[in-house]
Design a protein that fits this description.
Helix content is 2%, strand content 51%. By secondary structure, it is mostly beta strands. 53% of the residues are buried.
């Protein structure tokens, strides 16, 4: 027996014609008070086991960006014909601005960044990347929107609006004759600091407080970087790596050390180390983080206390499937996990409090599930699955007896 999830609604984003099966939900973003949820439709051919079969992602496939209310109504949507669709979405705390990125076209290959105002008007429509843009973030004050793919692209908002041509941070040359790419990116609340991590394991920190990017620190010793989280003040950040470690960086010391302040290995209660840390999250104060990693076909969630010189695992908990992401409320008292892999196998959503390693509740999904985000206030959570549904839970701490 397990507690029933406080599922308020789940929905398939509407479009005409409606694909069957529905497209994946690879990303969700939720406002601080849980009143708005942002998501988009995405499709990708994973191979022979892909439930949609080969060749579904064509330049004439319709995708969309969507904004939902807390009651499940579509407040606005924007659809276009493209290639693969929306890979990541982000929002300001109040939902006055949102940003989406992904892969726009296949011939030629172009990634995109779209920025919308509160009414759903597209203010930035940029398709200048030569490959998929895999992550986008927007600062709490809506001054900076940063996106990562083959490079880091930075859009700035002034009194006259958003600039349509981004500042560009080019990546160092890749290793083994292969170009590198950005997989993880985070900012402080003001958008003055940007940390990002790459497929080949580089972690870089830039300041853009003067309007132009300036390198602060550059670490090249990680084994692939899957996720980064930065605290609100921009004094520290954490990164999850392909070596099963969480790296902690003090911003003040990174400039001189070009190395993490310390690292912590994620293992389950039995001492088995995670093969990769796929997701990390950090509270606003920068005192606690959550991390999820794969162990064989299952996984582990860990709660990590962040000290100046070392980290301490408070507890760990097992996940049924390979975990893909984690998030935290602003105060770090509520934690989420989304899991499931590969495509065509079950996934689930989990909610925890920081006080215990027993989940408040678990919600099964019909396919592997990548995103789940708790609102910064902790009153609601949104999630998405490759079963094509957006899920909305509120209040996160509510439970009922279910199976």
């Amino acid at each position: 027996m397990s507690n029933a999830a406080p599922l308020v609604w789940k929905a398939i984003p509407p479009q005409t014609p409606q694909p069957s099966p529905p497209y994946y939900i690879n990303t969700v973003a939720i406002t601080a008070n849980g009143e708005r949820v942002f998501t988009g439709t995405f499709s990708h051919t994973y191979g022979a086991s892909d439930v949609r079969g080969p060749g579904v992602s064509t330049p004439t496939t319709q995708f969309g960006a969507y904004c939902y209310s807390a009651t499940g109504s579509v407040l606005w949507q924007d659809n276009w014909f493209g290639y693969e669709g929306v890979y990541w979405a982000a929002t300001t705390p109040g939902g006055d601005w949102s940003a989406f990125c992904g892969w726009y076209s296949a011939n030629p290959y172009n990634g995109f960044v779209f920025i919308y105002d509160q009414a759903g008007n597209r203010n930035v429509s940029w398709t200048g990347s030569p490959s998929r843009v895999s992550i986008v973030q927007i600062s709490s004050n809506a001054v900076t929107c940063a996106a990562g793919g083959d490079a880091v692209y930075i859009f700035r908002r002034t009194a006259s609006g958003w600039g349509s041509d981004p500042l560009v941070i080019d990546l160092p040359a890749g290793t083994g004759g292969k170009a590198d790419s950005v997989q993880a990116l985070a900012m402080d609340a003001t958008g003055a600091l940007i940390a990002f991590g790459t497929y080949q394991g580089r972690i870089m920190l830039y300041s853009i407080a003067n309007g132009l990017p300036a390198l602060i620190g550059n670490y090249a010793g990680a084994l692939s970087v899957h996720s980064i989280g930065m605290n609100a003040a921009g004094t520290c950040f954490v990164a999850g790596t392909g070596s099963g470690q969480v790296l902690y960086f003090s911003v003040s010391s990174f400039a001189s050390s070009n190395a993490p302040t310390w690292s912590a290995t994620l293992s389950n209660a039995g001492g088995t180390q995670a093969a990769s840390v796929y997701g990390v999250a950090i509270n606003a104060a920068g005192t606690v983080a959550s991390a999820v990693g794969n162990i064989a076909s299952a996984g582990v969630l860990g709660l990590l206390q962040l000290g100046a010189t070392a980290g301490t695992w408070t507890w760990t908990a097992d996940t049924e499937h390979n975990p893909n992401s984690t998030s935290m409320s602003s105060d770090g008292t509520l934690i989420s996990v989304a899991d499931g892999h590969p495509d065509g196998t079950p996934g689930a959503f989990y909610a925890y409090t920081s006080a215990a390693n027993t989940p408040l509740w678990i919600q099964a999904s019909g396919n592997m599930s990548w995103p789940m985000q708790i609102s910064s206030s902790g009153n609601a959570a949104a999630a998405g699955s490759d079963d094509g549904h957006v899920y909305y839970f509120s209040p996160v701490t509510a439970t009922g007896q279910g199976c």
